[in-house]
Write a structure and sequence with these properties.
β3, α2 and β4 form a beta-alpha-beta unit. The chain is built from 6 helices and 6 strands, in the order αβββαββαβααα. About 19% of the residues have low confidence. By secondary structure, it is α/β, with parallel strands linked by helices. The protein is globular and about 50 Å long. The chain has a 6-stranded parallel beta sheet, with helices on one face. This is Acidic leucine-rich nuclear phosphoprotein 32 family member. Multifunctional protein that is involved in the regulation of many processes. GO terms for molecular function: histone binding. Keywords: Leucine-rich repeat, Nucleus, Repeat.
C-alpha cells in the first residue's frame, strides 16, 4: 500500500488537524520520499515511518508540535538540516538501521535545542572507536544515545516517553490508595469473623439449653415405671394389708 492511501485510511474521517499520532510503518514511499504528509497536520506529536523505503527527508513539512520521529530501517544517509529547520520541538529521533557513516552527517542535529534521545543502532557510524564520546560532545543537549546516558545508565520507560514524573507520581498515589483499600478490606474481614464467632457462641448456648431440657425429660421418663408393667409388690405392702384385716372375736364357752 502506498503512503497516500495509508494516510487516508489512518485519518478515519478525521481532519489532519485532529491527528496527534500518525503511524505509517511498512507502507511504500514514492521514489524514497515522503508523500501525503502536509502542514495541515499541525497538531501532530508523533510520526512513525519505519521501513518505508525513505532515502531522504527533504520534503518533510513544518510540524511545530512534533516531538517524536521514527525513521528506523530506511536508507537515509544525510540531509538532516531540514529536521532542524522544520521540527524545532523534536525531543526523540530514531535513525536506527540507516546509512550514516560519519559523525559529521549528524552535525545538523545541533540545531535541535531540546533533542533528548537519539538512536543510531545498526548504523555504520556506531562502529567508530570513539563513537559515544564524539556524539555526546557534538550534541551536548542529548540525555540518551541508543538508550543509555553518558554514564552508561539505561533509560527508563518513563524517560523514553518524556512523562516519567507524572507517571511515577500517579503510580505512587495508586499504590497508596490500593494499600489503604487492602487495610480496609482486612478490617472488614476481621469484623465479619468476630460477628460470626459471636453468632456461633449464641448458637452453642441456645443448643446447650435445649440439650439440658432434653436430658431432664429423659431423667423423668427413667424414674417413672414403664406403661403396661405391673408394680412389684413389696413385703411392707403385705404387712400393711395384714394389719388392715380385723381378727374374729373370741368365742365365749
Amino acid at each position: 500500500m502506498d503512503m497516500k492511501k495509508r494516510i487516508h485510511l489512518e485519518l478515519r474521517n478525521r481532519t489532519p488537524s485532529d491527528v496527534q499520532e500518525l503511524v505509517l510503518d511498512n507502507c511504500r514511499s514514492d521514489e524514497g520520499k515522503m508523500e501525503g504528509i502536509t502542514e495541515d497536520f499541525d497538531n501532530l506529536e508523533l510520526l512513525s515511518l519505519i521501513n518505508v523505503g525513505l532515502v531522504d527527508v527533504s520534503n518533510i513539512p513544518k510540524l511545530g508540535k512534533l516531538k517524536k520521529l521514527e525513521l528506523s530501517d530506511n536508507r537515509i544517509s544525510g540531509g538532516l538540516e531540514v529536521l532542524a529547520e522544520r521540527l524545532v520541538n523534536l525531543t526523540h529521533l530514531n535513525l536506527s538501521g540507516n546509512k550514516f557513516k560519519d559523525i559529521s552527517t549528524l552535525e545538523p542535529l545541533k540545531k535541535l535545542p531540546i533533542l533528548k534521545s537519539l538512536d543510531l543502532f545498526n548504523c555504520e557510524v556506531t562502529n567508530l572507536g570513539d563513537y559515544r564520546e564524539s556524539i555526546f560532545k557534538l550534541l551536548p543537549q542529548l540525555t540518551y544515545l541508543d538508550g543509555y546516558d553518558i554514564e552508561d545508565c539505561e533509560a527508563s520507560d518513563s524517560d523514553g516517553e518524556g512523562d516519567g514524573d507524572d507517571d511515577e507520581e500517579g503510580e505512587e498515589g495508586e499504590s497508596e490508595e490500593d494499600f489503604d483499600e487492602e487495610e480496609e478490606d482486612d478490617e472488614e474481614v476481621i469484623a465479619e469473623e468476630d460477628d460470626d464467632s459471636a453468632e456461633s457462641g449464641e448458637d452453642v448456648e441456645v443448643n446447650g439449653d435445649i440439650d439440658d431440657d432434653d436430658d431432664d425429660e429423659d431423667d423423668d421418663e427413667d424414674d417413672s415405671p414403664e406403661r403396661g408393667e405391673k408394680r412389684k409388690r413389696e413385703p411392707d405392702d403385705e404387712d400393711d394389708d395384714d394389719d388392715g384385716v380385723s381378727s374374729p372375736p373370741p368365742l365365749n364357752i
